Structures are given as structure tokens and as C-alpha cells.
């Protein structure tokens, strides 16, 4: 009985989602109209970078899951101009490094070459490049872990748990 | 102002007018319409209908383009609202925006507001603790404010009345410092919370750890099903509006209930400017409203008026209701209107870790937490500060993922959840002392975008609060130490007053019209057909979350109002 009432209200709620009222979408309208921060080439480099940070294995990597777009969106909309500048200059520095060492853009570099470039930044003493990598890595992790693919298939997110138990044995490890 | 003819005036005349449709206004509407009064509910914000107007309620985490963080443009434009923990991508549309609703901060005060049908009832954390007799007796004993004109026994049946309808989960703990109510099945404390409860009860005879009492339907009764509400499904996304009606909000409960009586007219986009005082009849005859869309001013009339605009806005409306009889604000013969504003103090937290129960964890989600009822200065004055504090308490099993490295090793680390220690934490909820120097007032020249005088807020902490913070940190740290918790860290976050969203006072109740605004039934001493039953009426603040008390006071005042109306006393 209770379940039926609940399901009924769910159905109503889903129905109501069809058109968002103006006051609700108003929050993001201005940000949606904003141009993107990076050029098409730079965006491609960013996608290559997030895919290097979390690569395809037997499951999709961050690039394929669109995390590059997420990273860019977050920095564009939620971060200050300093962080935005750091993303842009970090990407062009990364690309320069790639051209210098491998004679090709980061976007065209091989998997191992990309990894080498990122690992070198990680170990280097260049504080600004390290901060750039750290920011992209953190956002990549966030975007990946909160992606639909990972939450549905790998971490099994429950929207409606309908329960709480305060003390159960640890099973997964 | 336009000239209205007689018929038009009749069409704008009701038995009762309720100003505001939040937690207290919803209760006014329900009680008055159920008792047969044709009631006009005026709400300054837009309409928000249950389920239909909860645009984010069924969105998955990945559907939020910023994963709950708000764009910088929005946080920059709303520095005050942004300091509220609950202002995020899924709920921001239920907060009033700072830049649209300005006020003057003579001292920093984070005024957090929800301007829509339902007010802040959509956003609240739903903690609902009764006051005890000690809370009502406090002021007369300690002399820190005027005496309350009522005691626990006056309000107890009204607590029961509202609890049964709203649906409150809780455990019967049998404590005289926090009376039991009409509870639905309690939520569960987890193993570390239970362990702490036992540790504390072994070490101290007057300190207790209990499960919070909260406005969630854990086992629906007929009265909840009749409202179209269902059992809480433990989503813990309440601030988006709950499609099940699992928690109490005006939108899911009192407003539709009042609507069903056929006696309610709801008028959104109606900013109440002032209450009209009729010199000849020597009572209020109606209200002036600014339509927020057209900015047109209009009048509505009624025999009784319930002012439920939330504490500070109710002060504003009364201060702005001037007449030759009341040049300083309606009912303000005493001069105390706008003064003795008080609030709660949430500044300090204590956190720690526990290394026990490492083979256990939690499962599911719980829209509630543990609670430590006030234990300081209850039976006698035992510290160098007045009054006391309650506290929230909770524990979670920590989990983490290895985020080191890059590439496949990072990916493997991220997908393998590991367990850490249990983390434990507590935050204080301190009572502040109502003082004359904590006040709100109208600016003489500046107006807000709705044509209302700008409100000035001048409210601050004092020495008593600082001492209380120190004591809370010492006592909770000691209780944690005795329980064997490790790595105990105390923090004073120095948040601004107001950020706890429990502002109260300015139109306080009292026995003596010379020192208070309202009598024991929340009627203005000097204008008996106006009732103020939101936080503005609070004589002192106690340590409990306040909204359950507003609900009970409102139901009680509405009952009295209708009796008085029938007896032709209003
Ligand atoms: C994040 C958060 C957590 C909270 N947690 C808790 C908790 O756990 N427990 C608890 O007890 N309380 C909690 N509260 C506080 C609780 O929400 C308020 O105490 C309660 O909503 C107050 O009820 P009210 O009717 O006075 O005001 P509201 O619910 O704010 O309603 C006031 C209504 O009046 C309208 N209004 C204002 N001015 C005018 C005007 N001039 N004309 C017409 N309409 C007007 C407003 O738009 C609003 O709709 C919390 C609040 C927030 C935001
Ligand atoms: S916790 Fe309960 S009340 Fe809150 S959103 Fe979930 S189902 Fe609704």
C-alpha cells in the first residue's frame, strides 16, 4: 500500500520533470551562454590528458566518458581567473614539452609518451605546472567517479536506498 | 492608490489573512481553514506546488553539470546565501538571492531566507525537539529576559497536536530536559553512537546521547496517507523537495490540506507592506500588499491577521505598519519592537576518530543524526555563563580510495574502497541571550526593490557566547576522551550570527505590555486581532531547533483566535 503511494508520487514527479520552469533553469542560463575557455585543439589535449590520468582498461577511460568536458566546464564556471589562466597555460606548456621531446603535439603522442610527460610534471620542481596537473587530476577523479557509467556500473549508486542500518559487517574490501 | 468600489472591497475581504506560507504560516492556514474561516494566504514569493515544482528532485548526481557546486557568478552574487551549507546546485532555487533582496548589515549577519510558497520548510534540516519546562522557566529564574507568559504544560497538548499531523520520528527517552512526544518509529543509532551513549551514561549521570527527533514519516499513519504522503525512502535529498512527502514541509502537508477545505485563497507574488490599523474600530482591518510583478499596491481586509513572515520579516512588517495611534510600529507602545533579537550559536565543532568496531560499517542512508540534550545550568547555575547548549552528535565509518599515481594504478586504486577508522563529530547549538542592543530597525531613507524601507540588522555575539563556546569544547572533548576517541580536534569556525537560521525575537511574548509585545496567546497586547506566531514571538531561544515550537504556538493561537472571534471579542 505504502509502496503504491510512493510509486504513484514518483511517476507524477517524473512527469513533472518534462519542462523546467524558468525560475529553476535561470540559475544556469547565463553560464550556459558563456563561451568555452579552451580552443578546439586545447580541448583535445585536455581530453588526452584525462584519458592518460584514468585510461581505458576493460572499462572505459575518463576521455571516453567525457570527463575532459567536465573539467573544462568546472574551471570555466566555478573557478577564478587565476585557475582558468593556469589551465590554459598548463595545456600549452604540456603541448610544447611534447613537441620538444617527441616532435609531435600531445594530442598525437602515444600512450606511453603522454604518460611520461605527465609523470615528469609530477616529479618536476616547476610549481605552476605541478599545480596545473594537480587541479586537472582532482577534477578528473571527481568527473570520473561521478560519471553515469561509473556510478551505475562500477560503484552501484543507489538513488533510493529506503533503509538505514547502523551496524553491518564489513564485507567488501 | 486606486479608488475601489464597494463590491471590489467585498471581494477583497476575508475572515482571516495569513502573511507568509512557510512553516508557521502553513500551520495558520491549516488551522484557520479547518475551523471554517475563509482565509487569504499572502506570500511574497512564487508558488511552489508539491512535486510539480521540485525541478531537481529526481536528478541523478551526474545530471548536475557542476556536481552540486555552484558557478562562481552565482556564489559571487550571493555571498550570504553561499555561506549556508545547503546552498548548492540542487537546492539554490529555494533560497532568496542576496542581490535581489538587500538589507543593511550594521554588523555582519547572514540572513538566510526562502521566499516562495513553503518558505524555508523546503530547506530545513527537520530536527524537531520539544522544549522542556526548564527552557520556559529559564528567563524568570536567571533574569536574562522577561518571563514567558506560558509554561510547558500550556503548550504540551499543542506539541502533540502538531507532531501527530506532521509526523515526527523519535525515541521515547524519558528525559525531563527534553520531553518525549508523539513519535513514529525512531531511526537507529549506529554502533559507535550507541557505544558513546553507553560510555557517557556510565561516566555522567545527567548527560545523554539520543537519536534526533525529526520530521520524517518512518511509519505512515492514516493521517499522513490522507495528506498524500508516504514513507520516507532515505534518499537524504530533502532540500530538493521530496516526491514522497517523506518529510514535513508546508508544501507537502499543511498548504494542500488547507487548500482541500475550500476555504483558502493563496496569493503568491504578494509582498505585504504593512498592516492597516483602523482608528475608529481600534483594531487592524487589513493589510497593504505590493504585487511583486506589477509593483501595484492593493489592500485586503479581514477580521483577524496572522503574521508569519519569519522572525525578521515579521518585525519589518510591524515596524512599517505606522498610524497615528502607533507612530513607532503596530502595537509598539512599549518601544521593544525590533529589540531583543536572539539566535542560536553554532560556531564550535569537535571531531575525532574511533579505532573500535573496525569490522562494522553502516548501510543505507539516514536523514537524521544523534543529539545531546542540554546538560549545563539546567537545575542550577553551575558555570560563569548563563544558559547552555545542546549538541548534534554523529559517527560515520570512514572510507577512502587510493588517489596516488596516474594511469591504470590510479584507476585501480579509485575503484577499490577501503575502510578507515570511524569518524565522530559534534556541533554545538548554543542559546544566546536576548539583549536590547541586538535589534533590527528601518532605514529612514533607503528603500528595497519592493518599495519597503530597507531593514538594518544589528546583532552580535557577546562574552556569554564566547564562554559557552569554550565550555562546549572542553566538555565534549572530555566526553570524547573518556570514550577513548583519538585525534580530538576542536574548531571555532567564527561564522556570522544568522548562519544557524534560527533567528528569533523582536516581537516577544510576555505578561507585561510595558516590556513585551504579545500576550500568552500571541496577540498584540495593543491590537488584539493581530497574532504573531513565528520566531518573532520568542521571548528566549533555548537550545532546541525552534520550528516545532512555532508550529505548536501557531496551532494554539489559531484555536484561541477562532474561539475569541466566535465570542465576538475580536
Ligand atoms: C538549511 C536550513 C536548515 C534548517 N534546519 C532546521 C532544523 O533542523 N530544525 C528547525 O526547527 N528549523 C530549521 N531551520 C529553520 C526553519 O526553516 C525556520 O525556523 C522555519 O522555516 C521558520 O518558519 P517561519 O514560518 O517563521 O518562516 P519561513 O518558513 O521562512 O516562512 C516565511 C514565509 O513568509 C514569506 N514572507 C516574508 N516576508 C513577507 C512579506 N512581507 N509578505 C508576504 N510574505 C512574506 C516568505 O517568503 C516565506 O515564504 C532550518 C532552515 C534552513 C534554511
Ligand atoms: S530522506 Fe526521506 S524525506 Fe528526505 S528526500 Fe529522502 S525520502 Fe524524502
Automatic annotation (TrEMBL), chain A:
Which positions make up the signal peptide? Answer: 1-24
**InterPro entries listed in its UniProt record:** Gluconate_2DH_su3 (IPR027056)
This protein's source sits in the domain of life called: Bacteria
Name the Pfam families for this protein.
Gluconate_2-dh3
Asked if the record carries the keyword Signal, the reply is: yes
Q: What is this protein called?
A: Gluconate 2-dehydrogenase subunit 3 family protein
Per the UniProt entry, what species is this protein from, by scientific name? Answer: Dyadobacter fanqingshengii
Keywords annotated in UniProt: Signal
User: Record keywords: Signal included?
Assistant: yes
TrEMBL record, chain B:
Q: Known SUPFAM superfamilies for this protein?
A: FAD-linked reductases, C-terminal domain, FAD/NAD(P)-binding domain
Q: Which InterPro entries match?
A: FAD/NAD-bd_sf, GMC_OxRdtase_N, GMC_OxRtase_C, P2Ox-like
Keywords associated with the record: FAD, Flavoprotein, Oxidoreductase
This protein's cofactor list reads: FAD
Give the residues annotated as coiled coil.
none
GO molecular function annotation = flavin adenine dinucleotide binding; oxidoreductase activity, acting on CH-OH group of donors
Provide the Glucose-methanol-choline oxidoreductase N-terminal domain boundaries: 151-323
Classification via PANTHER family: PYRANOSE 2-OXIDASE
In its UniProt entry, what is this protein called? GMC family oxidoreductase
Amino acid at each position: 500500500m505504502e509502496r503504491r503511494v510512493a510509486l504513484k508520487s514518483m511517476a507524477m514527479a517524473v512527469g513533472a520533470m518534462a519542462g523546467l520552469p524558468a525560475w529553476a533553469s535561470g540559475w544556469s542560463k547565463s553560464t550556459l551562454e558563456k563561451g568555452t575557455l579552451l580552443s578546439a585543439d586545447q580541448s583535445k589535449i585536455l581530453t588526452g590528458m584525462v584519458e592518460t590520468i584514468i585510461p581505458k582498461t576493460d572499462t572505459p577511460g575518463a576521455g571516453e566518458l567525457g570527463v575532459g568536458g567536465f573539467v573544462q566546464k568546472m574551471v570555466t564556471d566555478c573557478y577564478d581567473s587565476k585557475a582558468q589562466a593556469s589551465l590554459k597555460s598548463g595545456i600549452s606548456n604540456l603541448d610544447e614539452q611534447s613537441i620538444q621531446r617527441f616532435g609531435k603535439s600531445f594530442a598525437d603522442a602515444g600512450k606511453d609518451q603522454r604518460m611520461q610527460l605527465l609523470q615528469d610534471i609530477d616529479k618536476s620542481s616547476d610549481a605552476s605546472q605541478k599545480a596545473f596537473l594537480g587541479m586537472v587530476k582532482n577534477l578528473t577523479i571527481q568527473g570520473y567517479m561521478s560519471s553515469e557509467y561509473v556510478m551505475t556500473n562500477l560503484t552501484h549508486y543507489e538513488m533510493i536506498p529506503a533503509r538505514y542500518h547502523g551496524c553491518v559487517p564489513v564485507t567488501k574490501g | 492608490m486606486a479608488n475601489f468600489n464597494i463590491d471590489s472591497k467585498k471581494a477583497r475581504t476575508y475572515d482571516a489573512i495569513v502573511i507568509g506560507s512557510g512553516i508557521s504560516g502553513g500551520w495558520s492556514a491549516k488551522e484557520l481553514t479547518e475551523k471554517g474561516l475563509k482565509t487569504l494566504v499572502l506570500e511574497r514569493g512564487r508558488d511552489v506546488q508539491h512535486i510539480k515544482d521540485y525541478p531537481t528532485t529526481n536528478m541523478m548526481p551526474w545530471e548536475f553539470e557542476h556536481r552540486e557546486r555552484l558557478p562562481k557568478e552565482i556564489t559571487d552574487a550571493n555571498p550570504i546565501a553561499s555561506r549556508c551549507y545547503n546552498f548548492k546546485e540542487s537546492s539554490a532555487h529555494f533560497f532568496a538571492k542576496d542581490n535581489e533582496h538587500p538589507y543593511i548589515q550594521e554588523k555582519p549577519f547572514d540572513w538566510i531566507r526562502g521566499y516562495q510558497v513553503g518558505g524555508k520548510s523546503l530547506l530545513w534540516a527537520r530536527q524537531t525537539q520539544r522544549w522542556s519546562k526548564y527552557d520556559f522557566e529559564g528567563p524568570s529564574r536567571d533574569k536574562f529576559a522577561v518571563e514567558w507568559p506560558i509554561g510547558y504544560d500550556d503548550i504540551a497538548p499543542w506539541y502533540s497536536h502538531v507532531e501527530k499531523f506532521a509526523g515526527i520520528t523519535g525515541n521515547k527517552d524519558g528525559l525531563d530536559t527534553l520531553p518525549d512526544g508523539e513519535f513514529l518509529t525512531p531511526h537507529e543509532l549506529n554502533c559507535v553512537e550507541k557505544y558513546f551513549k553507553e560510555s557517557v551514561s556510565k561516566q555522567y549521570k545527567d548527560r545523554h546521547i539520543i537519536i534526533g527527533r525529526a520530521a520524517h514519516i518512518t511509519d505512515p499513519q492514516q493521517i499522513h496517507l490522507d495528506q498524500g504522503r508516504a514513507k520516507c525512502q532515505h534518499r537524504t535529498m530533502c532540500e530538493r523537495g521530496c516526491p514522497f512527502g517523506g518529510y514535513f514541509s508546508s508544501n507537502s502537508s499543511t498548504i494542500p490540506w488547507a487548500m482541500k477545505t475550500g476555504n483558502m485563497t493563496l496569493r503568491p507574488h504578494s509582498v505585504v507592506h504593512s498592516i492597516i490599523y483602523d482608528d475608529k474600530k481600534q483594531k487592524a482591518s487589513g493589510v497593504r500588499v505590493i504585487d511583486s510583478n506589477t509593483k501595484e499596491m492593493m489592500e485586503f481586509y479581514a477580521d483577524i491577521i496572522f503574521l508569519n513572515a519569519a522572525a525578521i520579516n515579521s518585525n519589518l512588517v510591524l515596524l512599517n505598519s505606522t498610524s497615528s495611534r502607533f507612530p513607532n510600529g503596530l502595537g509598539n507602545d512599549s518601544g521593544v519592537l525590533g529589540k531583543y533579537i536572539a539566535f542560536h550559536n553554532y560556531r564550535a565543532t569537535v571531531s575525532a576518530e574511533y579505532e573500535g568496531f573496525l569490522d562494522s560499517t553502516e548501510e543505507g542512508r539516514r536523514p537524521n543524526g544523534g543529539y545531546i540534550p542540554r546538560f549545563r545550568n539546567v537545575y542550577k547555575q553551575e558555570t560563569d555563563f548563563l544558559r547552555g547548549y545542546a549538541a548534534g552528535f554523529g559517527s560515520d565509518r570512514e572510507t577512502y580510495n587510493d588517489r596516488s599515481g596516474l594511469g591504470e594504478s590510479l584507476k585501480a586504486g579509485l575503484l577499490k574502497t577501503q575502510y578507515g577508522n570511524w569518524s565522530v563529530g559534534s556541533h554545538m547549538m548554543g542559546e544566546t541571550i536576548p539583549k536590547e542592543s541586538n535589534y533590527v530597525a528601518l532605514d529612514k531613507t533607503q528603500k528595497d526593490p519592493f518599495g519597503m524601507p530597507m531593514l538594518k540588522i544589528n546583532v552580535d555575539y557577546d562574552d556569554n557566547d564566547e564562554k559557552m563556546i569554550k565550555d562546549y569544547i572542553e566538555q565534549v572533548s572530555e566526553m570524547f576522551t573518556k570514550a577513548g576517541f583519538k585525534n580530538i580536534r576542536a574548531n571555532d569556525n567564527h561564522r556570522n550570527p544568522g548562519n544557524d537560521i534560527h533567528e528569533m525575537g523582536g516581537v516577544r511574548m510576555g505578561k507585561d505590555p510595558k516590556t513585551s509585545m504579545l500576550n500568552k496567546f500571541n496577540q498584540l497586547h495593543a491590537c488584539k486581532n493581530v497574532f504573531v506566531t513565528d520566531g518573532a514571538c520568542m521571548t528566549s531561544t533555548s537550545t532546541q531547533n525552534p520550528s516545532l515550537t512555532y508550529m505548536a504556538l501557531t496551532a494554539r493561537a489559531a484555536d484561541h483566535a477562532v474561539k475569541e472571534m466566535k465570542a465576538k471579542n475580536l
